[in-house]
Design brief:
Elements (H helix, E strand, L loop, with lengths): L1 H23 L7 H14 L5 H34 L3 H19 L8 H34 L1
Helix pairs in contact: 1-5, 2-3, 4-5
Length: about 150
């Protein structure tokens, strides 16, 4: 039974990394459009006699709408760059970092229960990153050769 416990403790860092990566895809910020919609509903509920409150609420709604428009304008270029980015440098840097970290991990005490599972994962990630990096380099070289030819 001790072997299963050691294996579970050895796989825990890898499983934690996978869980954090999966959770990152589901985390979302506040829904500003929903908040604006709720503010409009609240504005409709306020009686016309409360003109000052209605004006202040309308001012905050206008501010939120202006902020939303400003954010869309500011990040349009960023979104364009992000969608056109093919990841050439990122892939090469990921490959380099995984190889370096695999080398560092080789220097860790081999008798730790987490050593072998993590080393296997590092080898798999290194191979995956190498495939992406060399594919990106190949594409760049082929584009360069086509332009010259």
């Amino acid at each position: 039974m001790g072997g299963v416990t050691d294996l579970a403790l050895g796989v825990a860092p890898i499983a934690g990394g996978i869980a954090i990566g999966a959770a990152a895809g589901y985390l979302k910020g506040p829904d500003i459009r929903k908040a604006i919609r709720q503010d409009f509903e609240l504005l409709d509920l306020l009686p016309p006699e409360q003109a000052e409150r209605r004006a202040e609420l309308q001012r905050t709604i206008d501010t939120r709408i202006d902020d939303l428009i400003g954010a869309a304008d500011r990040y349009r270029l960023l979104r364009k760059v992000a969608t056109s980015y093919r990841g050439d440098v990122r892939d090469f840097m990921l490959f380099l970092c995984t190889v370096l970290f695999t080398g560092v991990w080789w220097g860790v005490d081999h008798h730790q229960s987490s050593w072998l599972p993590m080393f296997v994962v590092l080898i798999v990630v290194s191979v995956w990153a190498a495939w992406h990096a060399f594919r990106s380099i190949r594409i760049r070289v082929l584009r360069f050769v086509r332009r010259k030819g």
